[in-house]
Fold:
Amino acid sequence: MNFTEELKKYREIINNELDKKLPNFDSLQKSVFDSMRYSVFAGGKRIRPILNLKACELVGGNINDSLPFAVALEMIHTYSLIHDDLPAMDNDDYRRGRLTNHKVFGEAVAILAGDGLLNYAFESILGFMIDNNKNDIRYLNAMNNIAKASGVQGMIGGQIVDILAEDKEINKDELEFIHKLKTSALIEASIISGAIVGGADNEEINKLRTYSKALGLSFQIRDDILDKVGDKEKLGKKVGSDEDNNKATFVSVYGIEKSIEMTKKLCNEAIKSLEGFKNKEVVDFFKEMADFFVHREY
Structure:
């Protein structure tokens, strides 16, 4: 298996499905459709939906059954980025090398585009379930995992604690709490929801939960490292924004070297949790993904 080619292959599957699902027709509300599509197709890595599909595949499921969940996860992730970039939040002008949504469409439309993507994510899942008579409880469990990870017990909960912590000293436990909810929760839900749809048993779910928690935290730590020493051109956005906004990060609390060491330890934990899965090719993919999270430059 070639990891880069596999990413490309699944990214194309997801992009094609997103293009089919997202509204794109003339109507009085077309401006919000344009705003939604602008950010969705701004060049994202599609990591969360890819993890969803590969987790489904890992446990022997059909990725077509999980595809609606995968594209919903990308919609939710994109909505969070649109809102994060707003002046009331991180106040960023660029995302993925392009002007942020509110810089192109204005704040009001950007807010509504984010709201639209969040709602449309669940519309898409439910529509798939209704149209295909998918009344198995596992589909509801998968959707529930995504809903919780997106809400006040997940991403939104982490975001509010992060905002309230600006200009304050926080301890290590509070820092980890913020990022387990703000970043790691949706990554975990991406993997677990795919595994649930694929028919994973409890032992497989527990192993993948361990993997995804380690992966999610390493992703955030690497983000903090890149915000300090990353290449603006590769990242497609300004570096140093966390410091400018007086936010506590793993780098500000632990330093660069310790943060790098933590990502390597988390990578090893993630890889160890994959023991026992039989699909070697997909296991190798997940091992490569853990390594990518530690060494990525964008």
Summary: Residues 202-229 form the longest helix (28 residues). The chain has one domain: 3-291.
